[in-house]
Amino acid sequence: MVRKKHRSFKNIEPLIRKGESIQPLKAYLISCEGICTEPNYINGLVKQEKFNRRIADGTEVIIAKHNHSDPYGVLQDLLNTPDYENYDELWIVIDRDAFELKGKGFGGHSEENFNKALKESKKNNVNIACSNPCFELWIFLHFEYRDTACTRDTIQQKALEKVNTLLTPDKQIQKVDDLKAIDNLYDLLQTKINTAIKNAKKLNNNEENTINPSSGMYKLVESLFNN
Predict the structure, then answer these.
(1) Residue 202: in which H helix or E strand, if any?
(2) Ramachandran quadrant class, 29 (left: phi over 0; alpha: psi -120 to 50; beta: rest)
(3) Ramachandran sector of residue 222 (left: φ over 0; alpha: ψ -120 to 50; beta: rest)
(4) Which of 30, 54, 159, 168 could make a disulfide contact with 136, Cβ separation 3.0–4.6 Å?
């Protein structure tokens, strides 16, 4: 349920208890480019890390209704959410995924669409967790560091291979699209989250200059952890 403005934690002074400053809890609204993989990962992360007490139990995380799979459209999904302005933090989780010719035809997003999403996000105080070329790079970074450019297809295949190392032979997946069906994705990866954050931070300069590879997912994760 969306928190109404009069219930928002914005502008609430930190509570003081026994000399310690306790920060107020936050409400997050997150809009994702993917309809399955990203929401599954984020929801799993929030649930598991609340249990682990790395995310405050009262933190509210809502995934916006999915209608678009392009960066600017993802931003519009967020801004079209009723009462979006009442959330404490707004995030879009998007891919750079530049245009490229694939076996199935052209895929990816135009530079114009991507840049418009960045510009309008800044104007609306929306935080960006962008992976270049795609979200599967973030999954791959849970296992090892990579600083050489990669195509979407290549890094998706490598992410699949890495995830399969955590599955029993009878549960292993054969197609990249099957990653979308793993609703316990974060449960598999949770012991490697610190590695992913460390590896993504090393690629920070790439992210600032929209260079492949990079992933800003660590910023969203650290924001949740720091709440």
Answers:
(1) helix 193-202
(2) beta
(3) alpha
(4) 159
- The pair of structure tokens assigned to 148 is 């050489």
Please report, in tens digits, the pLDDT of each residue of the chain (227 residues total).
444 443 444 443 443 344 444 555 899 999 999 999 999 999 999 999 999 999 999 999 999 999 999 999 999 999 999 999 999 999 999 999 887 655 454 578 899 999 999 999 999 999 999 999 999 999 999 999 999 999 999 999 999 999 999 999 999 999 988 988 898 999 999 999 999 999 999 999 999 898 999 999 999 999 999 97
pTM over the 0.85 mark: yes
Residue with tokens 């699209």: 177
Amino acid (1-letter code) at residue 165 = T
Residues 6 or more apart whose CB falls under 8 angstroms from that of 33 comprise 68, 69, 70, 71, 74, 92, 93, 94, 95, 135
Q: Are strands 105-107 and 27-32 parallel, antiparallel or unpaired?
A: unpaired
Letter for the amino acid at 105?
Answer: G
| Residue 190, both tokens | 């949770």
Q: Which two three-digit tokens encode residue 53?
A: 């007490």
